[in-house]
Amino acid sequence: MNRKPILLVEGDARDRDLFLEACREAGLGQAPVVVRDGEEALRLLSPPLASAAPLHPAVVVFALPALGGMEGLRRFKAAAPDSRPIPMVVFSAARNREDVGLCYAAGANAYVVKPEAFSELVQTVRTIDRFWCGLNRLPSRQKLASIPMRRSDAGGVGNRPAAAMNGP
pTM for the full model? Predict the structure, then answer.
């Protein structure tokens, strides 16, 4: 099976290494693609910015240090129509409901609190991989290009194509 990779956006080298070690321990078949910030992620995902064919990951795990990357999350979702449906899983140490709400308002599809124990991190990585990379389905880039986006979709919360809103 040709599984799409996880794109990890993580600025902290220690946290990046820990996530990658958890991916190895979890037995992921494909190592995540790793970038250090939202700008680098946009270059990989957005056709006008990508140097070659843009990456089409199964999911983007966007690590937010104390919500410092919130604007990056908003910009990412608004950047290119064909990258909007790519699921964004926010991975943060912040645990309060206000932070969770802000992430969803910015376009997150899921919010996961970083576990403290390494064994829990490995299990979390397995769960993210199983659901977002295995069970979840994304439309092809060609299909996305043919689906008109509603004006309100550029902002975040309602970030599905208009056609998907009308179907069963």
Answer: 0.74
